[in-house]
Amino acid sequence: MKNLIIICFIFFSSHSFGQSNLLDNPPKKAWKIIIKNNKTIEENFLLIGKKLIDNDFSIEKKDKDFFTIQSSPKNLEKLDVSYYLSFVVKDSTIILTGMSKMNININFGAVTTESSYDKIINKGMNGSPNKESFNAMLKFAKLFSESDYEFITEK
User: What share of the chain is helix, strand, coil (3-state, %, to 5)?
Assistant: First the structure.
């Protein structure tokens, strides 16, 4: 009986803290953040637009027919990396992904090559372009404080 009580205590205490632990330590290779709430598709669409504007983002594209929004590119604070966020909106769900690129040009004589945007994935060491881009995306997701979160990882 004593063991059953201890197991129940551990189970319930881990679930009560699970949400904050998940946000503080998202899984490796996560590339999609699912934000779950109790809002309608229209409310979520407006909420994203407001959060973007309130946090110094511009809106590059929005599609009210398919309920998608994409921010304009923004630079990371610590690195010369540009990123943008993309949202797919549904009833009770916001799906957040992003793309980032290092702002470098390589010149080979008369040919100049620019870096291209790649999917933001939670990988690399702290301070790396990949990790800092994911941290910026995660920081934005945390603005939806009254929500539950789920991460989709790359296989």
Answer: 30, 35, 35
